[in-house]
Amino acid sequence: MSNTAKVELDGKVYEFPCVVGSENEKGIDISTLRAKTGYITLDDGYANTGSCKSSITYIDGEKGILRYRGIPIEELAEKASFVEVAYLLIMNKLPNASELRRFSDLLTRNEMIHEDMKVHFEGFPSTSHPMAILSAMINAASCFWQGLIDTDSDENFEIQAARLISQVRTIAAFSYRKSRGLPIIYPKPFYRYTANFLHMMFSEPYQDYEMDPEAIRALDMIFILHADHEQNCSTSTVRMVASSHSNLFASAAAGVCALWGARHGGANQAVIEMLQDILKSGDDGSRFMEEIKNKKTGKRLMGFGHRVYKNYDPRAKIIKQICDDLLHNLHMGDPLLDIARRLEEKALNDPYFIERKLYPNVDFYSGIIMRAIGIPLEMFTVIFAIGRMPGWIANYKEVRDSASKIYRPRQIYVGNTLTSCPTINERS
Ligand code: CMC
Questions:
Q1: Contact 225, 194 (CB under 8 A)
Q2: Is 362 in the pocket of ligand 1 (CB under 6 A)?
Q3: Where does the pLDDT of residue 150 fall: very low under 50, low under 70, confident under 90, or very high at 90 and above?
Q4: How would you label 354-390 residue by residue, b for 16+ Cβ within 10 Å and e otherwise?
Q5: Which of 233, 268, 307, 319 to mutate to test the pocket of ligand 1 (most atoms within 8 A of CB)?
Q6: Which of 320, 333, 310 is nearest to 362 (CA)?
Q7: What is the pLDDT of residue 1?
Q8: What element of type H or E holds 16?
């Protein structure tokens, strides 16, 4: 059934077509609004704006559903590896055995950064946040491989995608080693994706890191759960940059910058800092909750709330289970986990959180898993970035393959009306 929306403006009625997605999501196509009426729409924070049609990820925030290319996140977490999920997102199909072998080979062949890039790590102060280094080094990669600037051929694209997924992990581990004054550890071709990352992070030149299969699986799962999340802030940033026909690496570097903020990917670091503060203050969480609710300090319960999920984030459910299993299997306790559980219980029973539909999101328990694996706090958001890379690449490709226009929103100007330019002596 084709539907139209009628808008009455200045006494005239205009009709706009409705669009319906494959899961019955409904929108009004207002792309001719300004041309027909002279009006634009105003939607602060874009909460009601569909910026594109996409076939990558589906979310139903009311029902707590997340699917990559139609497959529920719960099934992927159980049956697939991160590399398989990356392939699914980018190529729009789960790889069969030979496709997986080919893609894994491509990742291995592209795992080393250009040797001359290593010198750049020396230039950053040891206090640098690894997200700053990550973004700078991803962007710098196109200086070392001029071919990265070519975005046209499909074959070249597959190599670029593999290079980015593989090298982001190498750059991340190198930046961590440098920030600690530790020697760089090169990847080993026989390790799988996530094991190789842990090797580059924690091995020493004289001793290989002892791999715990539980830790590898937990981190792989974190990557899977972060791999895509439709039009969030960083993915929209990647699409925005891609729409100007910038290259894949430049677009992904911009995504890293957008992800860094505490309201987005930076929340996983902020959750642990919040839990540490509560622990240090001797509070059982009650005082902190009161502080949040009276809003005087502007503090939020980090790891809670989501623009789209108005129900339990399905990723948080899985991550909470992984967290419980990992700590149990490693025979570890964490006082921060006890506080987190208490805060969750309080929040889920508190009218402030119930009325606003605030539930734990993916970041609430992921930091506790990363602590248990030994990943330092400042690397948490970098882990998110490694996981999100396939989603950014898939979204970049969707923009590249469509005839989409450059992204260029309008605004409602509310500044001065025509004002003359006074000379310096006339200015107050
Ligand atoms: N703690 C306390 N109050 C909150 C929280 C929170 N975590 N989140 C939202 N609220 C309140 C907010 O103060 C506002 O209250 P009121 O109606 O009285 O003004 C109301 O809920 C709506 O908040 P909003 O900021 O308009 O909601 P939003 O949809 O724009 O924000 C959010 C979504 C994720 C930015 C927000 O919930 C938040 O800041 N959460 C904490 C940071 C966080 O955990 N971020 C990770 C998100 S999941 C991973 C990712 O996608 O990066």
A1: no
A2: yes
A3: low
A4: eeeebbbbbbbbbbbbbbbbebeebbbbbbbbbbbbb
A5: 307
A6: 320
A7: 53
A8: strand 12-20
363 is catalytic: yes
SS3 17: strand
Distance from C-alpha of 15 to C-alpha of 9, rounded to nearest angstrom: 11
Please compute the mean of the pLDDT values over residues 356-377 and round it to a whole number.
93
Residue 154 CB-density burial (10 A; 0-12 exposed, 13-18 middle, 19+ buried): exposed
Amino acid 342 reads R
**How many other C-beta atoms lie within 10 A of the C-beta of residue 282?**
7
The helix/strand/coil state of 260 is coil
Q: Which of 129, 220, 306, 313 is catalytic?
A: 306
Closest residue (by CA) to atom 22 of ligand 1? 356
Residue with tokens 């491509």: 106
Kindly give, in sequence order, each residue whose CB lies less than 8 Å from that of residue 294, ignoring residues fewer than 6 positions away. none
Under DSSP, the state recorded for 185 is -
303 lines ligand 1 (CB under 6 A): yes
**Per-residue confidence (pLDDT) for residue 145, from 0 to 100:** 78
pLDDT at 223: 98
Closest-CA residue, ligand 1 atom 45, reads: 263
pLDDT at site 148: 67
Please identify, by atom number, the ligand 1 atom nearest to the C-alpha of residue 303: 44
Q: Ligand 1 in contact with 305 (CB < 6 A)? A: yes
Residue 66, Cβ neighbours under 10 Å: how many?
Answer: 25
Q: Which residue's CA is minimally distant from atom 2 of ligand 1?
A: 300
Closest CA relative to residue 55, chosen from 65, 66, 67, 69: 69
